[in-house]
């Protein structure tokens, strides 16, 4: 489990959340990893490419 901080801008308020980053799937031949970011308000999934 990898932990990192994620900024969320809510109206005029800036809150720093401690977010869990979970690697769901890794494509080693393409150096890609699917990252699922979890916060109390939303779930964001994105692909990252490692050079």
Note down, in words, how this protein is organized.
The chain is mainly beta and 51 residues long. The protein has one domain. Helices cover 0% and strands 75% of the residues. The protein has strands at residues 2-10, 13-27, 32-38, 43-49. A 4-stranded antiparallel β-sheet has the order 1-2-3-4, with no helix packed on it. Strand 2 (13-27) and strand 3 (32-38) form a beta hairpin. The protein is elongated.
Main β-sheet: number of strands, strand sense, barrel status? 4 strands, antiparallel
Question: From the helix content, strand content and strand pairing, which structural class follows?
Answer: mainly beta
Low-confidence stretches: 1-28
Distance between the termini: 21 Å
Mean pLDDT: 48
Total strands: the figure is 4
**Residues in helices, as a percent range:** under 10%
> Which percent range describes the beta-strand content?
over 45%
Number of domains: 1
Could you give the order of strands across the largest sheet?
Answer: 1-2-3-4
Order of helices and strands: EEEE
Rg (CA only) = 13 Å
């Amino acid at each position: 489990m990898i932990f990192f901080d994620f900024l969320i801008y809510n109206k005029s308020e800036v809150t720093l959340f401690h977010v869990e980053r979970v690697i769901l799937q890794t494509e080693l031949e393409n150096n890609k990893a699917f990252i699922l970011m979890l916060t109390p308000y939303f779930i964001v999934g994105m692909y990252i490419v490692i050079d």
